[in-house]
């Protein structure tokens, strides 16, 4: 298990390094931030001084080595807009993002998994058909469309909830519903498929033939074996929490990482964009790492395969 965990940690580190490198190169090749921040009407001497002060006049390879060297010490650069450390700006927004993403994750798991299990245990029933119909509608609808519909109904028509902002608990309800609905639909479909596959296995029929109660068959045989594919989708949802909040935070004017990313991209604030992308990548990589380790714990065959390689 130790070698399995070490191999996954090394892979996670390489993935984060690749994302940092890719973001650095693409942002540097996509345009000159000095022209946007200083404007094209600024004197050439002022633009040149700006580039020199931020190291933009150096070859891209030298800029990259300096960026990686500073990042290893925890220095991810400063915002070109206000001069504050980029990591400080990002960390200020993390609590706001977690305030809507964690409840949304709980909604996805708490609603999606029981719905999927119930649909699988009542296959082809009216409840199953209704659950799957709602699931299809939930995960095919774009998040911004769902957000606008929720605003139209609950904020405009009924006036129950605020349409935007972050003024108290009521302001978080619509963003949480927007983030959680689609995920719950996906979770229900995956859980149903995993349960149906397990319920069709010979050992399930053998346990039933031996006189084991159906409740025991489901709780002690079906659910544990259906857990592995379900863990996959849970890990994916945990990893995509921050990235998935970009659109929702923009629609609801929620002051989180997603909204900061949109403004930083518009302002060509390189250090802030790079820092946000690194945080998102690290979050997703750690979620996938947790899934891999959960695989190794749930199924020893996974550990054996990793050790063999």
Automatic annotation (TrEMBL):
Record organism: Reyranella aquatilis
Residue ranges of every copy of the ABC transmembrane type-1 domain listed in the record: 94-295
UniProt-listed Pfam families: BPD_transp_1 (PF00528), BPD_transp_1_N (PF19300)
Family classification: Belongs to the binding-protein-dependent transport system permease family.
Membrane topology annotation: Multi-pass membrane protein
Keyword Membrane included in the entry's annotation: yes
Subcellular location: Cell membrane
Entries under Gene3D superfamilies matching the protein: MetI-like
UniProt-listed InterPro entries: BPD_transp_1_N, MetI-like, MetI-like_sf
UniProt keyword annotations, A-Z: Cell membrane, Membrane, Transmembrane, Transmembrane helix, Transport
Name of the protein: ABC transporter permease
Transmembrane spans: 12-31, 98-121, 133-160, 172-190, 231-251, 271-291
């Amino acid at each position: 298990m130790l070698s399995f965990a070490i191999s996954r940690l090394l892979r996670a580190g390489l993935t984060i390094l690749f994302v940092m490198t890719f973001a650095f190169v693409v942002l540097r090749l996509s345009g000159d931030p000095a022209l946007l921040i200083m404007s094209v009407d600024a004197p050439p001497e002022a633009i040149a001084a700006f580039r020199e002060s931020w190291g933009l006049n150096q070859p891209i390879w030298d800029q990259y080595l300096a960026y990686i060297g500073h990042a290893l010490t925890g220095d991810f650069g400063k915002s070109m807009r206000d001069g504050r450390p980029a990591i400080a700006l990002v960390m200020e927004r993390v609590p706001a993002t977690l305030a809507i993403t964690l409840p949304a994750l709980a909604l996805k798991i708490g609603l999606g998994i029981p719905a999927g299990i119930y649909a699988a245990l009542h296959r082809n029933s009216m409840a199953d058909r209704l659950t799957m119909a709602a699931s299809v509608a939930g995960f095919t609808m774009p998040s911004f469309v769902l957000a606008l519909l929720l605003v139209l109904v609950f904020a405009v028509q009924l006036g129950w909830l605020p349409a935007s902002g972050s003024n108290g608990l009521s302001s978080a309800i619509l963003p949480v519903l927007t983030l959680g609905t689609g995920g719950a639909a996906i979770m229900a479909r995956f859980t149903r498929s995993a349960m149906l596959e397990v319920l069709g296995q010979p050992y399930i029929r053998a346990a039933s033939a031996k006189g084991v109660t159906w409740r025991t068959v489901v709780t002690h045989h079906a659910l544990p074996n259906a857990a592995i594919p379900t863990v996959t989708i849970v890990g994916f949802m945990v990893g995509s929490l921050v990235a998935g909040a970009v659109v929702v935070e923009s629609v609801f004017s929620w002051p989180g990482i997603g909204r900061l990313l949109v403004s930083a991209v518009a302002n060509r604030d390189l250090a802030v964009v790079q820092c946000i992308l690194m945080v998102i990548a690290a979050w997703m990589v750690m979620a996938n790492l947790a899934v891999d380790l959960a695989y190794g714990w749930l199924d020893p065959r996974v550990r054996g395969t990793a050790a063999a390689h």
